[in-house]
Specification:
Blueprint (H helix, E strand, L loop, with lengths): L30 E6 L12 H6 L1 H10 L5 E5 L13 H17 L4 E6 L1 H8 L6 E7 L22 E7 L7 H14 L3 E6 L10 H17 L5 H8 L8 E2 L6 H4 L1
Parallel strand pairs: 1-2, 1-3, 3-4, 4-5, 5-6, 6-7
Helix pairs in contact: 2-6, 3-4
């Protein structure tokens, strides 16, 4: 078994929201999306600048799509990049970010949107009262272990939940996110999952479609905007259909014109 040495205590640093994606806002904020970058299972190293930068294109796309409703997007800066076992540091930082967003903007709906281990953090921190929606992209979820408690799902009750996973992801197992979605669907019917055929962990091959789906989901969840038929069908379909919904090539292209 590999052993990991933490470099400096995560608690010596503080998580941060920083400036909103797209610059300072001049209009009223009607909702917030908190973007949670990928991380590492065990590490005390400073949060990755590369992982932070990887969330910016999605943040910009969501901010543009939700500008008329006053959507603010922030990429959360973790104390450190590691989940770190039962400490679940990334989830703790995500919970802090929700509290900070409410302090900063008032009583507005919040969506947690994470990638990789940030996806796990988004799902875990969903129990915060202000959270109305959770988007988990290629989420890193643990293997089933009879000696450990399964990844919790009760905190998702009352939230709208979307998981998106590439079928060729070599870093995080898409089958584990499917199993998680199965359990989550039993606790919370407003759960669905899309599969991106032949795409990998970074979801680069169909990035435009993934961003369009994310915008549809976030704006529909936070502001009750009408959403595309595939998303409606996925939410309504029983397992496994609504948990293995294929993301069609060109999804959202008509809206992008």
């Amino acid at each position: 078994m590999a052993h990991f040495a933490l470099v400096g205590p995560p608690d010596a640093r503080r998580p941060r929201l920083g400036r909103p994606v797209g610059g300072s806002r001049t209009s009223a904020v009607g909702g917030v999306v908190l973007l949670l970058p990928d991380g590492e299972p065990m590490s005390g190293r400073r949060a990755s600048l590369r992982a932070h930068a990887a969330m910016l294109p999605l943040g910009r796309a969501l901010e543009r799509a939700g500008r008329s409703e006053g959507l603010a997007a922030h990429v959360v800066r973790y104390r450190a990049r590691g989940w770190n076992g039962t400490d679940a540091d990334l989830a703790a930082d995500a919970s802090w970010a929700v509290t900070e967003a409410v302090r900063r903007y008032g009583d507005v709906p919040v969506c947690l949107a994470g990638h990789g281990l940030g996806g796990r953090a988004a799902l875990r921190a969903a129990g915060q009262e202000a959270v109305g929606a959770v988007l988990a992209l290629a989420p890193w979820l643990p293997e089933d272990d009879v000696a450990a408690e399964p990844e919790p799902v009760r905190q998702l009750v009352g939230r709208r939940v979307l998981l998106v996973h590439g079928t060729n992801d070599a870093r995080t197992d898409p089958e584990l996110s499917f199993r998680f979605a199965e359990r989550a669907k039993k606790a919370n019917r407003d759960t669905c999952r899309f599969e991106v055929h032949s795409d990998g962990h970074a979801l680069r091959q169909y990035a435009a479609e993934v961003r369009a789906l994310a915008a549809d989901f976030v704006l529909g969840s936070l502001f009750a905007r009408p959403v595309a038929r595939p998303l409606t069908d996925a939410m309504a379909a029983p397992p496994p259909l609504g948990l293995r919904m294929p993301l069609a090539v060109g999804f959202g292209s008509a809206r992008r014109r």
